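Predict the 3D structure for this chain.
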Amino acid sequence: MVSRSRVLVTGGAGFIGSHVVDLLLADGHDVVVLDNLSPDAHDGAPDYLDERADLRVVDLTDQAAVDAAVSGVDAVCHQGARVGLGVDGDDVVDYVTDNDLGTAVLLRALWRRSFNGRLVVASSMVVYGEGAYLCRRHGTVRPEPRAGEDLAAGRFEPVCPGCGRPLEPALVDEDAVLDPRNTYAATKLHTEHLASVYGREAGAPVLALRYHNVYGDRMPADTPYAGVASIFRSAYEAGRAPQLFEDGRQRRDFVHVDDVARANVLALTAPPHVTGACNIASGTPHTIGDLAAALSEAYGPAAPPPEVSGRWRLGDVRHVTASTARAEEVLGFRAERSFTAGVAGFATAALRRPPRRATPAPAP
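Done. Predicted structure below.
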């Protein structure tokens, strides 16, 4: 992008998108925000959205409105999506409509105006399915999806498909096999594929940012589409102990939203040859139990300790932690917010509370 560009941010009133908008405006860019302000996540237009942004309250599936929004833009940051694991299989049409169809409508709008500027799309670590694993006998291996009978018996760790031995979790890189294992994951991978096809056909540089577990202020609360950090915090605010699925030892990479927003700006301003995918993560793995314990400590001695429920969901994976080497090499990105400081701040950060209260989903 040039020093002053016009940037379209879809989902720009949401959790991550609004932070991207803030940074772009601070850098002197003009910003158009497309957001449907879904009541699953919003109570009207949020007061944190900078008034300098050109907010257009439309759905991404509204072709005429999207056609109008892309007029004159130099770059696109596509954050708009339905996120999280959701409630159950009845969500499938909502996910496909918001994520697949919404992306397709955006790309058609860009094609109609011969757009070949930078396109950054929000993807997710869920496209990997399970993360990377090492077997002492067979080296790098890809475990099969975990069976319901194993999970019910408390056998949570994947085993080597060749010898059945325990595996050691490793860092997954962008060249790993992609293996989405729930509806949301499938739609995020399709978003990557659609954007990549557009990039080749239109001559546009496309970069997919595979977010790991993002947390921070403006996260939606009290909704099954929230992330695990928000679900745990909502439990503490209600005086309840967070319920840890499985044994609480699932490894994830928790990355603060400020770092994720900065990664997006770096991606939007990257040279044209930077394409493909990048993991956006802190580079420091922690368990789900670590997160719950850190929040408990932030709330003080009166906070109930987290409880291991042993419950499980078939669409969940065990360990996904990231190599951040490519993001550092091609974007110059390295997370700055530490886990300890980030979680302590998150304990009192402002969250979004939608008017239509949904029953919070249990934490993965």
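DSSP finds ten helices and 17 strands in the chain.
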